[in-house]
Q: What sequence folds into this?
């Protein structure tokens, strides 16, 4: 999947809409509730650097494997400037900030961000073990009670893509 096809994938799950020229907008929650506005752009590597926590939300695409780390309610991530990625997933709340929690976690995964905002994650020891994520940086706040979506400027929304480009899971991260 490339370019506008990625944006269209988000359209089909009802989070964002793509309008003329490839601009991505938040579709208003209903008639009379304001015009559509641009709220995201594709991620760059600079957007991801830092420590993040999962924001629990009613994602339109949920992961179906109950043993996968994606379904755990507490998740933290650290994207390094050097391309290293650390993460921790737990059923219980973490004690401390994401940066503090991840100090104890070894960096065994690398990431890279393509010009189209696609993030590729690979295990250092097993490069064949990889994931592909579509990534959008939030540039404006959205508080949509009807859809139960609360995006803040600076958040990222990442969509895990399967080997055939199908959407498997959507997560929202906040610094």
A:
């Amino acid at each position: 999947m490339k370019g506008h096809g990625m944006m269209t994938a988000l359209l089909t799950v009802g989070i964002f809409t793509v309008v003329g020229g490839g601009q991505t907008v938040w579709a208003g929650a209903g008639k009379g509730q304001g015009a559509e506005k641009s709220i995201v752009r594709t991620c760059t590597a600079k957007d991801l650097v830092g420590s993040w926590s999962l924001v629990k939300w009613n994602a339109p695409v949920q992961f179906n494997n109950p043993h996968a780390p994606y379904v755990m309610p507490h998740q933290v991530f650290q994207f390094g400037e050097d391309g290293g990625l650390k993460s921790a997933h737990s059923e219980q709340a973490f004690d401390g900030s994401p940066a503090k929690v991840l100090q104890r976690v070894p960096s065994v995964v690398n990431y890279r961000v393509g010009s189209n905002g696609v993030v590729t994650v690979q295990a250092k020891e097993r490069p064949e073990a990889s994931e592909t994520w579509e990534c959008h940086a939030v540039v404006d706040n959205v508080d949509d009670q009807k859809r139960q979506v609360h995006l803040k400027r600076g958040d990222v929304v990442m969509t895990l893509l399967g080997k055939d480009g199908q959407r498997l899971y959507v997560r929202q991260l906040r610094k």
Remarks:
- The first helix runs from residue 4 to 12.
